[in-house]
Amino acid sequence: MPWPSRKRDKAAVADKKEPDAKMAKTEETSDKEEEEKSTKAPAGTSKSGWKNWKKTKESDPGGEESKITYCHWLLKSEPESRLEKGVDVKFSIDDLKAQPNQTTFWDGVRNYQARNFLRAMKLGQQAFFYHSNCKEPGIVGIVKIVKEAYPDHTQFDQKDPHYDSSSRKENPKWSMVDVQFVRMTKRFIPLSEIKAHHLAHKADGGPLKNMMLFTRQRLSIQPLTQEEFDFVLSLEEEKPH
After folding, report:
1. What is the pLDDT of residue 149?
2. What's the N-to-C CA distance of the chain in angstroms?
3. Subcellular location, in the record's words (predicted)?
4. Cα dihedral sign for 180, 183, 188, 193?
């Protein structure tokens, strides 16, 4: 039996610990919105995001936003029970680890931009598993994409909280990917810590200055640049503040 839909984005809830969060609002855009492009992620783990970012900055002094490429991702899921149309949408990283082969489909996304990000994901790319809408939101682990985008079956299931009566099987609106557990991060990396770096980097031009976790915080599927991924990953080596 597949798990009920638990990853949602139709009106994604801002993290409870995020003081700058705006009131909930559905972020629906045109089907014609251009998909974000991505490239394959290099194998292995990163060690020094800040140094890598500095090297990139030196070799590309222009740094225009148009040159940004996204090759990693951040996936939000709710680790605490919450009923949506009578269905518990809870899905933590421990729930993922309990799945056969520690793999599951990432269903229930009902926002066009987030859907386009799903469709841009490439086999083998890595993503942070982020616990959202809970007492202490933050990054808890790493997953990888093991199957690229295909139709989300929950859009056709009338019993599912994410059923979409306007979607047709011959032309499905919504997609999902399969993800597999890679590992837990060496420590929990809380939103508050990431935000502190984001604010500092906004002032000094660091790699997290434009991190979508703060510029488009309601999206449950968010792209990361190589520099953003490297820097956040490097935080697991540091002692919590």
Report:
1. 98
2. 42
3. Nucleus
4. negative
Dihedrals φ, ψ of 226, to 5°?
-60, -40
Sorted by where each starts, the structural domains of the chain and their CATH numbers stand as 72-187+219-225 (3.10.590.10)
The angle, 0 to 180 degrees and rounded to 10, between the axes of the packed helices 226-234 and 49-59 is: 150
Query: How much is the pTM?
Result: 0.77
CA–CA separation, 102 vs 86, rounded Å?
26
Output the six-digit token pair for 45: 């783990």
Rg over alpha carbons for the chain, rounded to the nearest Å, is 17
Distance CA 155, CA 159 (A): 10
> Cβ distance 173 to 166 under 8 Å?
yes
H helix intervals, the chain: 49-59, 93-97, 112-120, 191-204, 212-215, 226-234
> 197: which residues sit within 8 A by CB, 6+ positions away?
206, 208, 231, 235
Distance, in Å, from the CA atom of 240 to the CA atom of 237, rounded to the nearest integer, reads 9
CA atoms of 34 and 85, how far apart (whole Å): 32
Interval 148-163: pLDDT, tens: 999 999 999 999 999 9
Q: Where are the alpha helices (DSSP H) in 16-147?
A: 49-59, 93-97, 112-120
The CA angle 111-114-116, to the nearest 5 degrees, is: 105
Which one, of 120, 100, 111, 98, lies nearest residue 177 by Cα? 120
How far, in Å, CA of 208 to CA of 118, rounded? Answer: 22
d(CA 47, CA 166): 46
